[in-house]
Write a structure and sequence with these properties.
The protein is of the alpha+beta class and 220 residues long. The chain has 6 helices and 9 strands; from the N terminus they run H-H-E-E-H-E-E-E-E-E-H-E-H-H-E. The longest helix has 17 residues. The model has no long low-confidence stretch (mean pLDDT 95). Pfam families: Pep_deformylase.
Length: 220
């Protein structure tokens, strides 16, 4: 059923320029659980929103954008990662290219007990990055923009991306999960802690990595 309040909000956003303005931490929309998507926008408007979110993700640049990050309180996110990183970095982080996809009403659960810690950033928290321990492998369920169900496992960096974006839809930011002693400004992270794993940061800043050092910061 079309929701006129939501459609007016989305239309007002889409009538403006691209990229869409990103909402920053401190805005309540980032802290409230988003509503399940149940067709409130209609197919054409949903596609326009998805296209605008993709353009916004590319412009940022980032590897994901959740609807609350552009002020829309619905359980929708887009992800895409060309994984254009050095081979050593990609190997250490399990970072492999991910095609563009839309996540509607996603939910995840860990597969196994292994957790890994890496630096993360967020387009809604500009200027900072921190180490976040996350499940190394997750099972993700949800739908795509056409309503088709999916049930897939993600490992490595793709698992980190889908956890980060799905968390946004529940009102959780990476700030809530981060190792607080690892917080760095983005320039510091790039200059001092951009090694393939954050082991040097853990040693010098005084925090512990999961698994005693299992191993940049994805932004979404």
């Amino acid at each position: 059923m079309i929701d006129t309040t939501l459609t007016e909000l989305v239309d007002g956003l889409l009538d403006g320029p691209l990229p869409l303005p990103l909402v920053h931490v401190g805005d309540p929309v980032l802290r409230r659980p988003a509503a399940p998507y149940e067709g409130q926008l209609g197919d054409a408007r949903l596609q326009r929103l998805v296209d605008a979110m993709r353009a916004t993700m590319h412009a940022a640049p980032g590897v994901g954008v959740a609807a609350p990050q552009v002020g829309i309180p619905l359980r929708i996110a887009v992800v895409e990662d060309p994984a254009e990183v050095p081979e050593e970095v990609g190997r250490a982080r399990g970072r492999v290219p991910q095609p563009f996809r839309v996540l509607v009403n996603p939910s995840y659960e860990p597969v196994g007990d292994r957790r890994v810690g890496f630096y993360e950033g967020c387009l809604s928290v500009p200027g900072l990055q921190a180490v976040v321990a996350r499940a190394a492998t997750v099972r993700l369920r949800g739908q795509d923009e056409t309503g088709r169900e999916f049930d897939e496992e993600f490992s490595g960096w793709p698992a980190r991306i889908v956890q980060h974006e799905t968390d946004h839809l529940g009102g959780t930011l990476y700030l809530d999960l981060a190792e607080t002693r690892s917080f760095s400004t983005t320039p510091h992270m790039i200059d001092r802690w951009s090694q393939p794993t954050p082991e040097a940061a853990a040693r010098d800043l005084g925090f512990t990595l999961p698994g005693d050092g299992d191993g940049d910061g994805a932004r979404g």
